[in-house]
Amino acid sequence: MNLGRELRKYVIGMVMALTLTGIAFALTIWNYWPVRTRFIIIIACAILQLLVHFRYFLHIDLEKSHRDDLQLILFSAFIIALMVGGMLWVIFNLNMRMM
Amino acid sequence: MTNSTTPLPRLYPGMNLGETDPDTHEAAEELVFGFWVFLMSDAVLFALLFAVYETMVNSTAGGPGAAQLFHLKPTLIETLVLLASSFTFGMASLIMKFKQHVVLLQIALIGTLILGVSFLGFEISDFAKLTRQGAVPQLSGFLSSFYVLVSTHFLHVLSGCIWILVMLIQLSVFGLDETVKTRLLRLGIFWHFLDIVWIFIFTFVYLLGLL
Amino acid sequence: MISNSYWNPWFGKLTLNAIPTDSLVAMGAASIAVLGAVGTIVLITVFGKWRYLWSEWATSVDHKRIGIMYVVLSLVMLSRAVIEAIVIRLQQAVSVNHSGFLAPEHFGQLFTTHGTIMIFFMIMPFLTGLINYVVPLQIGARDVAFPVLNSISLFLTAAGAFLIMASLVLAPFSTGGWTGYPPFTGIEFNPGVGVNYWIWSVSLASIGSTLTGINLIVTIYKKRAPGMRLMFMPLFTWTSLCVAIMMIFAMPPLTVATALLALDRYLGMHFFTSGAGGNMMNYINLFWEFGHPEVYIIVLPAFGVFSEVFATFSAKALYGYTSLIVATMAIAVLSFTVWVHHFFTMGQSANINAAFGIATMLIGIPTGVKIYDWMLTMYRGRVRFTSPLLWAIAFLVTFVIGGLTGILLSVPPIDFMVHNTTFLIAHFHNVIIPGSLFGMIAGYQYWFPKAFGYRLDERWGRIAFVCWTAGFYLAFMPLYVLGLKGMPRRSVETFQSSFEPWLLVAAVGSLLIAGGLISLGIQLYVSIRQRDRARVAAGDPWDGRNLEWSTSAPPPEYNFAVLPHIEGRYPFYQMKKLGHAYPQQKTYQPIKMPKNSGLGPTIGVASAALCFGLVWYIWWLAIVGTAVIIAAIIVRSFNRNTMRVISVEDIEHTEARWHAILAAAVPVSRDQENVPANVGLAEFMS
Ligand code: HEM
Ligand SMILES: [Cu+2]
Q: How far is Cα of residue C158 from the mean position of the Cα atoms in its chain?
């Protein structure tokens, strides 16, 4: 991999990140769509941008040669989902029952 | 080990130095992997702070909520500044890998540092504005969780800035030796990681708060 | 008690009134702490050992020394926590319809320190110490991945232990239990410094464990000897890997919970307060997102020890190696899905409780698999009832009982009945003591000869074993009955005459346990005295199968003069089978090892100062502590001279001495394991 190709990666990443950020910010004020739709799109933008940063800035990809850290990322994501999901499930349920 | 026909294995997250400096590349494997493990632990910490925030968004105790307090413009500026600093750090990494030029590298790092410090400055002025409006962390559960989530990120960026400063000095003292390089690799993934955390802060705290 | 608003810039809220002169028991404890500290200092000075301790131990980054220091710390803390347990037991035994000899405040501190110490400063250091000592040897590495970080972890833990010890003299400690639930522990209901002690000591331990977890993961992933695949690793290394991964994910919830509690207390925030939008249920949820994985963090290493012990003392390969690993991984993952069973009664819907109850029951499956694997390992083996195996067998039986009562508790309606009673106390001691402490003791007895070069006395080992096991049953079985009768846990006083006989039995049991602890001490003393008749310098007293037994006892600082090449499971057994267990090397390469470093002790002392300052609101001390930590790290980062080289001559010399011992050694059969003839060379048996 040479300088030009690696540089291109950063530039692509930057452009994509800027686009996604722009969409998310724009949707916050642009109120022609229902809140629910915009809510979902904004969250989707965040997740996409996460992937963009991973791919282009942190150079994480699905290549075979460095599986250790990929496994670790997936496992971390899984644990975070469990912990955060469980916490929100329990606490929101409690809030609801105390209404 | 280095063979021009087979591509070098990537050994760790972030910029890999295999093509230009195979020795550091190998030395970095354990170090960067270890730092990555730490970041995963840190990610759990942030995730939990986000979860706490989400459970407390409505606990305003009669005080102001997200929609009254937050503004899009400063958030956008902070976002762009941090994103730009991610990019300049990327440039620093490329210089380290392909040019091995100390002064150029220092310039890129100073650029990153300036952006990092201005990010901190914008946040401080944000907080100051909130405080002047009386929205202090002691006012409600919502504000406590807001301040703690955002200032945990703030503290991380602050330590990142100090780290950049130390690396600038080490670059002058030691030049681009193996240790300096492996540290810059780790600093790089730290910096990019903080930008990722910020994506979630501006999304979940500011944008969804203002929606 | 002084007024809460008192504050002085030099000493914060600290005054002479902090010395607990109002209680005889507390004064006794304080004097023991002071005398112990002063006595140690005087002894070290008299024998002129300061330099030796500093340069050989405190600054050492050798994983073996750090492991030993962890275990020493843990044994000291174990003694304190057992004494506290006995005091609690005695108080409860004499306080039926009577106020007993302890004030409620003091009683509250006792169960809090007992629980906190046992979990964070006894069992965690114990397992971290064993893992530190053994894992690099088992995977054929010369040290852990980050030796200096390892030393930092140790001293952070020690700093936390120091805080708890300091709270004996500069009292009080928290009365909020080891779980520290708000709002009781909030500033509103607990304006004193006690909860601060708890918060900071636990936070230090938690950060130390996170760093240990990182270190171990990288060590096991990246530093295995050439050829050692994951599926060749010994079971103890496997459980250590799972535990390390659990540590990095389970510690953050604790750090978040204690940090937010601290912010509530120090800065008046409203995370867990009962007003202004605070939500204490968040704390409970966060705490147990740590707390449940934690119980598996402390149990899995013991499972690893037992796997080694059952195989070695049955002279067989482990039955179901793969199933044991799969079960370990299953337990590790499942342990993140069950935390709600600690608060079934908090009020969430029945569906949530049912989901978490079922997840809890599922853990019984992989655990059951393990139990059968261990039993089948012994089946038709050449079983020797040497002490480590005795502890293992006691574990096997007792742990199953504890596990079954756990299944009972996982059923939400049953949990509602016995929640917060001594039934729960009985249950978790019934799993933790055999499932974790017995494992650690077994590991200590098993690897002691490796670490020090001589065996522990077998007779006192058996006496200790009998006292602990019998004491355990006497002390904890009555608590099941009491729990079913409705006795609340943490009761300083009860009003049911029918409790009394059971409480008396439990008190006797705790005294028997104390006898067991004393026997362990005597065992150590006797063994040191008679070490010349129990030397096993050749290194393999139990006919072991894994790499740690292939070195001399104690191993040289570089562990392996030449890194072994691994071709399968049980590498040392394979080498013995092929008759080249102790290859004579013709040439050696110089070995690079990390230099000693003062960074660990420096950070330890500075963080102790930082946290002590925070406890007592002595801000300047806290600031100095923080500054020293940051400065020490930055200064260290400029040090380029961190490695040193062990010369070929030194290696040749060390290896030649060991090979001379090997040449002179007569191999012994397994019947002679505990006689002086066993110098650490095992007769090969297929
Ligand atoms: C060695 C013998 C032991 C004895 C005699 C003993 C006894 C006790 C007693 C009497 C209590 C208070 C019960 C109550 O609240 O009514 C207690 C609580 C507790 N023990 Fe132990 N214990 C022992 C070992 C251990 C060990 C090895 C651990 C953990 C590794 C442990 C962890 C705890 C914890 C976490 C609590 C709860 C503290 C609280 O209420 O916050 N104990 N123990
Ligand atoms: Cu549990």
A: 13
Closest C-alpha among C464, C445, C514, C436 to residue C81: C514
Same domain, A46 and A75: no
In a domain, B19, yes or no: no
Contact C595, C644 (CB under 8 A): yes
Number of domains composing chain A: 2
Q: Which residues contact C550 (CB under 8 A, 6 or more apart)?
A: C539, C540, C564, C571, C572, C575, C581, C582
Encode pLDDT of C208-259 as tens digits.
999 999 999 999 999 999 999 999 999 999 999 999 999 999 999 999 999 9
Q: Return the H-helix or E-strand segment holding C58.
A: none
Q: Both A2 and A37 in a single domain?
A: yes
Q: Do the domain assignments include residue C685?
A: no
**B38, part of any domain:** no
Mean pLDDT per 10-residue section of chain B, whose length is 211 residues: 55 83 87 94 96 94 90 94 96 91 94 97 95 93 96 97 96 92 95 96 93 85
Cβ <8 Å between B9 and A25: no
Provide the shortest C-alpha distance from residue C255 to chain B (in Å): 8
Mutate which of A15, A19, A25, A41 to test chain B, going by most B C-beta atoms within 10 A? Answer: A25
With a CB cutoff of 8 Å and minimum separation 6, the contacts of C674 are C386, C455, C458
List Cβ neighbours of C114 (8 Å cut-off, separation of 6 or more).
C81, C84, C85, C88, C178
Task: Give me the domain span that covers residue A8.
Answer: 1-59
Contacts of C253 in chain B (CB under 8 A): 44, 48
> pLDDT (tens digit, 9 = 90+) per residue, C561-573?
999 999 999 999 9
Please compute the mean of the pLDDT values over residues C549-574 and round it to a whole number. 92
Inter-chain CB proximity C282 and A89 less than 8 Å: no
* A chain contacts of residue B54, beta-carbon cutoff 8 Å: 88
Question: CB–CB of C347 and A83 under 8 A?
Answer: no
The answer to whether position B12 is within a domain reads no
Which residues contact residue C564 at a Cβ distance below 8 angstroms, ignoring those fewer than 6 apart? C140, C225, C547, C550, C571
Alpha helices in chain B (DSSP H): 22-56, 66-69, 72-94, 102-132, 141-174, 178-200, 208-210
A97/C348 Cβ within 8 A: yes
Tell whether C3 is covered by a domain. no
C9 found inside a domain: no
> Which chain A residue has the Cα nearest residue B9?
A65
Residue of C214, C222, C270 with shortest CB distance to B141: C270
Which ipTM value was assigned to this complex? 0.94
Contact of C282 with chain A, judged by CB distance below 8 Å, is answered with yes
The residue segments making up the domain with residue B103 are: 69-210
In a domain, B10, yes or no: no
User: Three-state SS for C680?
Assistant: coil
Q: How many domains does chain B have?
A: 1
* Structural domains counted in chain C: 1
How far does residue B181's CA lie from ligand 1's centre (Å)? 49
Q: Are residues A37 and A73 in the same domain?
A: no
Q: Are residues A68 and A54 in the same domain?
A: no
Q: Which domain holds residue C391?
A: 16-672
Enter the tokens of residue C282.
Answer: 């968040």
Both A42 and A20 in one domain: the answer is: yes
Q: What is the pLDDT of residues C40-81, one digit of tens each?
A: 999 999 999 999 999 999 999 999 999 999 999 999 999 999
A12 touches chain B (CB under 8 A): no
Interface test with B, best of C637, C639, C641, C643 (most B CBs within 10 A): C637
Written as one string, the DSSP assignment of C240-268 is HHHHHHHHHHHHHHHHHHHHHHHHHHHH-
Residues of C in contact with A69 (CB under 8 A): none
Q: Closest-lying ligand to the alpha carbon of C78?
A: 1
**Closest approach of chain A CAs to the CA of C345, in angstroms?**
12
Q: Is residue C684, in this structure, part of any structural domain at all?
A: no
CATH number for the domain including C574?
Answer: 1.20.210.10
Cβ pair B48:A84 closer than 8 A: yes
Predicted confidence at residue B1, as pLDDT, reads 41
